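Students often ask why inverse folding is considered easier than folding. One informal answer: many sequences map to the same fold, so there is more than one right answer. In these notes we will look at a single instance of the problem. The structure comes first.
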C-alpha cells in the first residue's frame, strides 16, 4: 500500500481557465505558458487541456522537444531565446520561434546556416531590466535582424514587472508603444495579471497574450482578488489522508518545537504530507486545509512527512479521512493554492512548481 498522498491534474479546469483567458482578450491569440514543466503540472499531463491554445511558450529546449513529441505542430516560442549557437539548429529542425533579447543572439543567428528562415520575437526592455534591448537600442537590433537572410519575420515582445499591483503597466506600455511605434510586426505584452486586470485595453491585449499562472488556477493578484473573482478553477489538487488521531488535553503540544499548545481538549488528525512532498515548511498554525471538504487549520510545525490538523470542525473525520492541502475536495469544496501559499509567505507559483517527485500524480480527464 503506497502512502495515501496524491496529486491530481484537472483537465477540464485547464480548459476552462484557458477559455477564461481568451475571454479576457477576445481578439488576441493565446500562448499557453508551459515553462517549468507546465508550472509543475507536467507538460504531457496538461497538453490535452491546453491544446486549444494558439501556441505554447516555454524556455527550455528539452521542453520544446517534448511539446513537438506530443504532436503539436503549431507555434512554440522560446521565451528567453537561445543560449548557445547550436540551439539554433534545433529551432530550424523543430520550427521554434525564439525571442531575441541581446546582441549575442543576433551574432549567433548571423552565422547560423539554415534553409528555413526563423520567426523571431525581438524583446524590448521597457523597464523590468531583466531581458531585452533598451528603447534606444531596439531600432538598431531590428535593422540588423531585418537584414539577415536567416530571419523572415520579426515580432515584438515585452514583459511587465508590476501588472499585479496598483503601480500597473502604464509607464512600460508607453515606453513600448513609443519604441515600436512605426515598426511592423506582431506584438505580445501581457502575462496573466495584465490580461485580467488591463485586458479591456486593445493595446495591452496586442496580438498575443502570454498567460501562465491563471491557466493553472491561481490568482495573479492574490490576495487582492481570489480565483473566484477571476472565475478561475484549480488545476492541481494535493490531497492525502489521516493516518492517526490524537486526543489532546489542555497544555499538550504538537510536533517539533512544541510550537502549538492545546488551549483545551482537542482532537487532531495526523495527515501524510510534509515538506518532502512540496508542502511548505513555512506554513504555520492556522494555515487553511480541508478535512472531508470542511475547512479547518493546520496546527504545529510541518515536518518532513506529516502535518497535524484540527479536527474540531469535522467531528466525523478519523483514520483514513480525506485531507486537501490545496485544490478541490471530493465534495466539491475548493481551497485555492493561493491560501497556503500566502500562509507560507509565497505565491501559488512556487507551491505548484515545487510539488515533489515522490508524490504520485494522476490526471482527471
Ligand atoms: C516572458 C514571460 N511571459 C509570460 C509569463 C507568464 O506569466 P504569468 O504566469 O504571471 O501569467 C512569464 C512568467 O514569468 C514570462 O516570464
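Output (designed amino acids):
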Amino acid at each position: 500500500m503506497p502512502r495515501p498522498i496524491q496529486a491530481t491534474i484537472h483537465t477540464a479546469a485547464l480548459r476552462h481557465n484557458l477559455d477564461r483567458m481568451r475571454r479576457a482578450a477576445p481578439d488576441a491569440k493565446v500562448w499557453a505558458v508551459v515553462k517549468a514543466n507546465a508550472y509543475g503540472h507536467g507538460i504531457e499531463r496538461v497538453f490535452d487541456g491546453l491544446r486549444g491554445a494558439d501556441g505554447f511558450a516555454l524556455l527550455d529546449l528539452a521542453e520544446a522537444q517534448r511539446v513537438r513529441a506530443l504532436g503539436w505542430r503549431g507555434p512554440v516560442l522560446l521565451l528567453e531565446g537561445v543560449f548557445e549557437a547550436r540551439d539554433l539548429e534545433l529551432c530550424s529542425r523543430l520550427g521554434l520561434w525564439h525571442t531575441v533579447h541581446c546582441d549575442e543572439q543576433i551574432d549567433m543567428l548571423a552565422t547560423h546556416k539554415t534553409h528555413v528562415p526563423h520567426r523571431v520575437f525581438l524583446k524590448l526592455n521597457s523597464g523590468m531590466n531583466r531581458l531585452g534591448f533598451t528603447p534606444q537600442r531596439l531600432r538598431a537590433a531590428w535593422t540588423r535582424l531585418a537584414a539577415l537572410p536567416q530571419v523572415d519575420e520579426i515580432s515584438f515582445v515585452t514583459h511587465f514587472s508590476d501588472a499585479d499591483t496598483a503601480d500597473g503597466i502604464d509607464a512600460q506600455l508607453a515606453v513600448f508603444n513609443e519604441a515600436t511605434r512605426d515598426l511592423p510586426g506582431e506584438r505580445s505584452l501581457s502575462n496573466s495579471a495584465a490580461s485580467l486586470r488591463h485586458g479591456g485595453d486593445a493595446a495591452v491585449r496586442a496580438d498575443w497574450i502570454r498567460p501562465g499562472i491563471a491557466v493553472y488556477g491561481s490568482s495573479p493578484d492574490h490576495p487582492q482578488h481570489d480565483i473566484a473573482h477571476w472565475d478561475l478553477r484549480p488545476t492541481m489538487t494535493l490531497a492525502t489522508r489521516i493516518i492517526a488521531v490524537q486526543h489532546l488535553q489542555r497544555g499538550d503540544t504538537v510536533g517539533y518545537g512544541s510550537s502549538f499548545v492545546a488551549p483545551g481538549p482537542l482532537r487532531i488528525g495526523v495527515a501524510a504530507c510534509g515538506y518532502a512532498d512540496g508542502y511548505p515548511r513555512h506554513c504555520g498554525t492556522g494555515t487553511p486545509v480541508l478535512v472531508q471538504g470542511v475547512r479547518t487549520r493546520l496546527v504545529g510545525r510541518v515536518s518532513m512527512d506529516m502535518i497535524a490538523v484540527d479536527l474540531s470542525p469535522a467531528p466525523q473525520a478519523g483514520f483514513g479521512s480525506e485531507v486537501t492541502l490545496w485544490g478541490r475536495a471530493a465534495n466539491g469544496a475548493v481551497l485555492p493554492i493561493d491560501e497556503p501559499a500566502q500562509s507560507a509567505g509565497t505565491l501559488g507559483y512556487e507551491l505548484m512548481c515545487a510539488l515533489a517527485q515522490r508524490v504520485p500524480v494522476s490526471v482527471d480527464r
